[in-house]
Amino acid sequence: MPAFFIAINPCPFLKNHCNFHCFNHQFKKSNAMNSGKQPTYGNGKICYIELPSKDIKQSSSFYQNVFGWHMRIRGDGSVAFDDTVGEVSGTFKNNRKPFTEIGILIYIMVFDIEATIQLIEENGGAIVQPVGGDHPEITARFTDPAGNILGLYQER
Length: 156
Hints:
By secondary structure, this protein is α/β, with parallel strands linked by helices. It has helices at residues 56-67, 113-122, and strands spanning 48-52, 70-73, 79-82, 89-93, 107-110, 126-129, 138-143, 149-154.
């Protein structure tokens, strides 16, 4: 695993964490949230992501189509997301600059990195570091439609 891999989990201070189903192309249907299983909580956990976005509709569509993230509308009308395993939530911010240079780098775990790369390209993203750049780890880096650089990580 890359030294800078981050496991992201839901913030215990967030309310109305949403139930969802996993995306069919890569993941089996998950009912972890519906089964009464609660997200893991703990002091010091990274709990929430705010992703810069030039177009929130485009960004939400990208992450839903590529990774199967569940999108929801909050009470204030903003779009929020939940990942496929109930361990991270976040929102899109159109008043922030995309992170187009590597500082902190967030990796998204996938089951099939090649299939995910194809989905990224089909949905308006681009690969900026192909598989093999962090050998022996199975990783790649991509930009989303807003220009944010993120990583992909596939378990061996």
